[in-house]
Each structure stands twice: as structure tokens, then as C-alpha cells.
Amino acid sequence: MFKDSKLILLLALPSILSFATVTLTGTISLIMVGQLGALVIAVVGVSNIIMYNGWALFSGTGLTVNYLVAQNYGAGELKKAVERTYIALYFCIIVAVLLVIAGFYAPGAVLRLMGGNTELVNAGEAYLGIRFFAMAFSVASFVLQGFFRGIGDTRTPLVLAIVGNAAMVFFTYSLTYGHLGFPKLGLPGAGWAFFIGEALIFAGSLYVFLVRLHARFGTRSRVVISRAEARLILTESGKLGVQEFATSAAMFIFTMFVTRLGTTALASNEVALNVMSFGFMPAFAFSATATILVGQAVGRGDPLQARKYGTETAILGSIFLLILGTIEFFLADGIARIYTSDPQVQELAARLIRVSAFLQLFDGLYNFYAGGLRGIGDTTFMVKASFLINWLIFVPLAYVLTFMLDMGSMGTWIALYTFLAIYGLAMLIRFYRTDWLQVQMKKA
After folding, report:
1. How open is the CA angle 433-436-442, to the nearest 5 degrees?
2. How far apart, in Å, are the Cα atoms of 190 and each of 29, 35, 108, 180, 198?
3. Which of 386, 428, 283, 359 lies closest to 57, judged by CA?
4. pLDDT tens-digit profile of 53-81?
5. 435 CB contacts (<8 Å, ≥6 apart)?
6. Is 3 exposed, middle or buried (0-12, 13-18, 19+ CB in 10 A)?
7. Is 162 exposed, middle or buried (0-12, 13-18, 19+ CB in 10 A)?
8. How many CB atoms lie within 10 A of CB 319?
């Protein structure tokens, strides 16, 4: 157990730091551009929602590469791992073209579709367009980092995240306000900071893949692409992307419900979600670790060890979240005061922080066991469960509790609690009801 725990932590901790770097950069960037006024904060908030949903839809390609490469690496099929990564990168070229077109022609229409008034659209059109351009790099980077994680390298994504996000902070400061001899671009400058940071991460990822890993994996060798493999990548990417999008879209509806409750409720909700995001980082990190270890064990032809890895990763991740949740529960009032000086927002935010403190455990269960199920390629179940639980339980329940039963903010969070509890238990039950002796590598 100790040996496995050490292996799990060695893979998970760099991922936690990597995700923490991204979260911290977003917070610092928002603080810096926030000095431009409330309208700019609103533009950034709406743009982040759009990017989150777009990212969810296209993230399936990187998730697919991650679990398939893990299986191939475990089986010693290094050439197959490289072939599948190239297929995903070719798909990313198509996605990048679509994102560039969207960046040129769609920002205004998208902002209006989100309910933005003329002032918000005029202020945010250029910024959102640049964010679309930046996403073209981030989608491809996620595929390459899926390869790195699949072979058990979680340190390279961490180093690249630190470099890229440091660049984002530097250029947000310099380009937004014209410091250090750079032009003063205002909000579009913050958009270009995202673009530069994502471009650096992509360039670094490509360098590692093509140069540093070539001797070991033959990453610059000619790769013959088979139609069967291409079909597999597209199918799996579609399923995992739709699974993520079903959740992100449901969370968007959740936020719309809270928005209708008024400013105090919305502000309190944002504070609670921001605090809860500290639990998302270890949840995602241990989920990625489960995918790596389970996938590699399946590739080695040792499904029972794969099951053991999944269980131990879930246990360690749950301990991590339990400690974090306990701290948040007892320090909720003090944490709320850090975010706001408004007494009403402080009171409601503290209540929601206490509610969300142990909600993270259920979110963790979902992520840990979903990571394990990805490792064996059980993607069909995952996409079905995501649709059913998000849209037949979560969204309707949130509406009923919030508006029909007039429970306000607490109603939305009870719905969120119920949703994550059911989602987490569904993944857990599926994981342990799987006939592991019949688990095999995913074939084209």
C-alpha cells in the first residue's frame, strides 16, 4: 500500500500544482483587469463562461489521448501511442481553423446570445475574439499533455503551466496598462496575454514531444494513419467531449438560476464556488492519476491491479478533500470576510461555504472513479450517465427547489449536493460492478 501511495502522490502532486497555477493566474489576471471597471469584469466573467463550455466540448480529444496512450504505454505499444496522438493533433488542426474563424466572425453574436447589451458587446468583442484564438493553442496543448500524462510524466505539464501562466500574468500587467515600455491596449491586451501564454505552452509541449521524446518514442518518425484508428479517436473524443459539455452546460443553467435571485445571492454563490474550486484541483489531479495508473495496468494485462490502483487513488484523494473540507467548514466566516465586506453577502457566503465544504467529497468521488473508468475506456456509460443525471435530475431539481419551493440559494446548492452525490455514487457503483477480469485494452 505504501509503495502504491507514493506512486500515486508522485503523479498527483505535480498535477495539483499545475491546476493551482492555472487557477491562481486566473485570479491574478482578473484582479489586474478589474481596475478597468465593472464592465470589464462582466466581460471577463461572460467570456470565461463561453470559454469553459467551448473547452469542455473540445477537451474530449485530450482525455481520449490520455487514456489510450496510458494503455499503449502499459502494453509497450509505443508506436501505436504516437500514431493515436498524431491523429488527435490532425483533428486539432480542424478545430483550430474553426476557432480562428469564430474569433474573427462570432464574438459579437455570441456575446449578444449570452444576453449582453450593446455596451458589453462593444467592450468585449475584441477580447473574446482573441480568447478564441488562444483556445486553438490550448486544445492542441491538452492533446500533447495527454500523451505526457499517459506515459506517466506529470512534471512536464507542471513546468509548462508555470512558464505559460507566468507569461500571462506578465503580459496582462504590461499590455493592459502599457507598463515596461509595452503599448497600452486595455482589455484586448489581457486577451493577447492569454494568447501569448497559450502559444508558449503549445510551443513547449511540441518541443518536448518532437525533440526530447523522439529518441525514446520515435515521435518524428513517419506515421501511417489507419481509418480504424482515426474513427476510434473521433468517436471516443466525441463521447468524452459531450460528457464534459453536458456538465458545463448544466452548470451554466445553474448559474442563470442563481442570477435571478439577485445580487447578494449571485455574489455569495460566486464566493462559495471560488472557495470550492480549491477542492476541484486535487479532484482533477487524482482523477488524472487514476486514468494513468488504471490505463497502464490494463495495458500490461493486469486488470486486478488496475482496480486496486483506482481504489487507492480514490482513498488518498478523499482523505485530501476531507482535510480541506474540514478546514473550510470551521473557517467559513473568516474565509467569507476575505472576499467581501458586505455583511449580507458574508453571512450567506459563509453558509454556502459550509454547505460546499463536504460537497467536495462527492465531487471527488465522481472525479476519482470517472478517472478510473476512463482508464478502461468505459466512455459510453460515462456520457449516458452525464446526460441523464445533469439534465433529468440536476437542472429540474434546481429549478423546483429554487423557484417552485422558494428555497432560494440554499435550494440551488441542495440540488448541486444531490447531483454530485448521485453522480459520484453512479461512478463508484459502475467501477466496482465492472467485471475486471474481462477488461481489455481499447482496440480500433
Report:
1. 115
2. 8, 12, 18, 15, 13
3. 386
4. 889 989 999 999 999 999 999 999 999 99
5. none
6. exposed
7. middle
8. 11
Residue 66 to residue 75: CA distance in whole angstroms: 14
Residues 403-440 pLDDT 10s: 999 888 788 889 988 999 999 999 999 999 999 999 99
pLDDT at 36: 80
Residue 413: which of 344, 364, 362, 370 has the closest Cα?
A: 362
The amino acid present at 52, given as its one-letter code, is Y
First-residue to last-residue Cα distance in the chain: 35
* Residue 410 zone, left/alpha/beta (φ > 0; ψ -120 to 50; rest): alpha
How far apart CA 246 and CA 233 sit, in angstroms, is 20
Residues in the chain predicted with pLDDT less than 70, given as ranges, are 1-3, 263, 266-267, 270, 339-340
Angle at 158 between CA 306 and CA 219, to 5 degrees: 70
322 neighbors 334 (Cβ within 8 angstroms)? no
Contact 148, 291 (CB under 8 A): no
Give the CA dihedral 186, 189, 191, 195, nearest 10 degrees: 180
Query: Any idea which residue has 434546481 for its cell?
Result: 398
CA dist 80 to 223, 228, 442, Å? 9, 12, 12
Q: Report angle CA 382, 383, 384 to the nearest 5 degrees.
A: 90
346-374 per-position pLDDT tens digit: 888 888 888 878 888 888 999 999 999 99
The secondary structure of residue 221, as a DSSP letter, is S
- Residues 109 and 106: their CA atoms lie apart, in Å, by 5
How much is the pTM? 0.90
**Residue bearing cell 496510458:** 70
* 81 alpha carbon, distance to own chain's centre: 23
Nearest Cα to 369, choosing from 302, 315, 300, 441?
315
Q: Are 444 and 226 in contact (CB under 8 A)?
A: yes
